[in-house]
Design brief:
Radius of gyration: 17 Å
Keywords: Metal-binding, Ribonucleoprotein, Ribosomal protein, Zinc, Zinc-finger
Number of strands: 6
Cofactor: Zn(2+)
Family: Belongs to the eukaryotic ribosomal protein eS31 family.
Strand order of the largest sheet: 3-4-5-6
Number of helices: 0
Structural class: mainly beta
Largest sheet: 4 strands, antiparallel
Distance between the termini: 57 Å
Order of helices and strands: EEEEEE
Strand content: 35-45%
Protein name: Small ribosomal subunit protein eS31
InterPro entries: Ribosomal_eS31, Ribosomal_eS31_arc, Ribosomal_eS31_euk-type_sf, Ribosomal_zn-bd
Length: about 60
């Protein structure tokens, strides 16, 4: 039997959720309203979604 291929581990890019301006740390993405602070919501083309609880906020057209 052939050896199974190892999957590459998915790396997280948590540093993309923050910007440093002067001495202040600014969060660039939203927190989940259900899970609270510390759980970021993923930004899609038409919505924000939480990967932990599944909460979704749709972005309205301007």
């Amino acid at each position: 039997m052939a050896a199974a291929k190892e999957k590459a581990k998915k790396t997280t890019k948590k540093s993309e959720n923050y910007n440093i301006v002067g001495n202040k740390l600014i969060r660039t993405t939203k927190f989940c309203t259900r899970c609270g602070e510390g759980v970021f919501m993923a930004k899609h083309k038409d919505r924000y979604s939480c990967g932990k609880c599944g909460y979704t906020e749709f972005i309205g057209k301007k």
